[in-house]
Amino acid sequence: MTPQESLLALNLLPGLGPVRIRRLIKRFDDPAGILSAREDRLIAVEGIGPKAARIIANWEDHVDLQGELSSIRDRGLSLLTSESPAWPRAFEHLPDAPLLLYVWGHVEERDGHALAVVGSRKATHYGRDCTRRFSFQLAHAGFTIISGLARGIDTAAHEGALAAEGRTIAVLGSGLGQLYPPENMTLAERIADGHGAVVSEFPIETRPSTKTFPQRNRIVAGWCEGLLVVECPARSGAIITANLAGEYGKQVFAIPGAIDRPSSEGCNELIRAGAILVTDGSQILEDLSQLPPEARSPAPLHDHAPLPRNHPSLSEDESAVYAQLRDDQLSMDQLIEASGLPPSTVAASLLRLEMKNLSRQLPGPYFVRSA
Fold it and tell me: How far apart are CA 343 and CA 339, in angstroms?
C-alpha cells in the first residue's frame, strides 16, 4: 500500500478527523504505521480512546479502500496531499487543515494566490452584481477565486472568475459523487474543464449535511490570502467563515449594503467590527500582497469609456451577443435564442460586456445595451 493509499484509508475512517490523525502520524511517523499499530499503542496517543483504537486496528472492516480507489479512477479524479507541489501552503499553518483533497480538474501552485468570496444563498440582484464584478476584477488580476459552489453569492463568484477567463476553486460540503446543489453541475463542469477545480475532503459518496458545511467553510477560510463577504444576514455561514478567516490571520473585506435591508446586516456588522470596507476590486489588490508578474493577467483592468461595437477587444462571442442587445430589456433565454450560442457562452459574454460598460443587467434577470 502506498503512503497516499494509507492516508486515504485513514481519511475514510469514521469519527477520527484530521486533528487526531495528525497526532497519530506524529507518533507513528507515517500513515502505514498507524494502520499496522496495536490497540494498546494507539490508545497511548492523546485523544485516542478504546473505541477509536479498535476502529483503527480493524480498519479493513470499516473501509472499502479498493472501492474508493476504483471510484476515483472511474470518475477521472485525483488526490491532492501535502506531498504535492500544488498543496496550498497556507494549510501548513492550520491546526485542522484537511488531510487530503479529492480533485475534479486541476489545482495548480498559482492557486495559492487566492481570494475567497462568500455570502448569502438568497442573494439579491445587488449582491450578485457586486460579486460578479469583484470576482471578475480579482480573477483578471491573477487571483484564484475560492468559493463553495452554493446558490447565490458563491455561484456568482465562480461565474465572475470564469467570465474573466481566470481560475476558480469550488470547495464542496459533500463528496464529489453527491455534488450540491445539483443544478450547479454544469457550472462545476466548466470549472473543472481547464479553469480550476472542484474539490472536497469528504469520501466520494458523502451527502451534504449540517456538519459537512462548517467543515467545508474552514477550508475556504484557510486556503485564501483574503476573504470578501459580499452580502449576508447577521446570522449566516458566511459570517462564521469570515470569523474563521480572521482567526487564521487572513484579511477580511466586506461590501457595505443598505442599512434597512436584512440581507446587508452581516456585512455592515463586519465592517463595524473591523473588516475593511471595499467598493471596488482595486482596493483589495492594494491591501493584499501584490502577485508576482508571472501570475498576473497580460493586461490590467482599467475603468474606461464605452467601447465601440467593432472594437478589436471584443471576442467573436461578445460581438455576437452585443449585436442582439437593445435599449429595451431582453431575457437570458431571448439572447440565447437570438445569438444561437450556448447558455454558458452567453452568460460569460454578457459579464465581460458589462465589465466593458457595454451592457447592463437588470433584475429578472434582463439585459440592456449600455452604449
Answer: 10
Domain 103-295 listed as CATH 3.40.50.450: yes
Query: Which sequence spans correspond to the domains of the chain?
Result: 1-63, 103-295, 316-369
Q: Which residues contact 207 (CB under 8 A, 6 or more apart)?
A: 174, 175, 178
Find out if CATH 3.40.50.720 is the number for domain 316-369.
no
Structure letter (DSSP) for residue 356: T
- In the DSSP assignment, the letter for residue 208 is P
Give which of 69, 78, 74, 52 is closest to 1, Cα–Cα: 69
φ, ψ of residue 106 to 5 degrees: the values are -145, 130
Nearest of 112, 94, 142, 172 to residue 300 by alpha carbon: 142
**Coil/strand/helix, residue 47:** coil
Q: What is the mean pLDDT of residues 118-123?
A: 96
Nearest-angstrom CA–CA distance, 10 and 163: 39
* 276 contacts 252 by C-beta, under 8 angstroms: yes
Cβ atoms within 10 Å of 311's Cβ, excluding its own: 13
pTM across the whole model: 0.81
We find that the CATH architecture of domain 1-63 is Orthogonal Bundle (1.10)
- Segments of 244-289 assigned E as strands: 251-254, 276-277
Tell whether the torsion through CA atoms of 38, 44, 50 and 53 is positive or negative: negative
Indicate the SS3 state at residue 197.
strand
- pLDDT of 312 > 60? The answer is no
Read off the pLDDT of residues 35-88 as tens digits, 9 standing for 90 and up. Answer: 999 999 999 999 999 999 999 999 999 999 999 999 999 999 999 999 999 999
pLDDT tens track for 234-245: 999 999 999 999
Listed in sequence order, the residues at least 6 apart from 316 whose beta carbon sits closer than 8 Å to its beta carbon are none
pLDDT tens-digit readout, 142-201? 999 999 999 999 999 999 999 999 999 999 999 999 999 999 999 999 999 999 999 999
**316-369 shares the fold of 1-63:** no
CA–CA distances in Å: residue 357 to residues 137, 273, 281 = 14, 34, 16
Question: What value does the mean pLDDT take over residues 339-353?
Answer: 82
Q: Say if residues 158 and 191 touch (Cβ distance below 8 Å).
A: yes
Q: What values do phi and psi take at 319, rounded to 5?
A: -65, -40
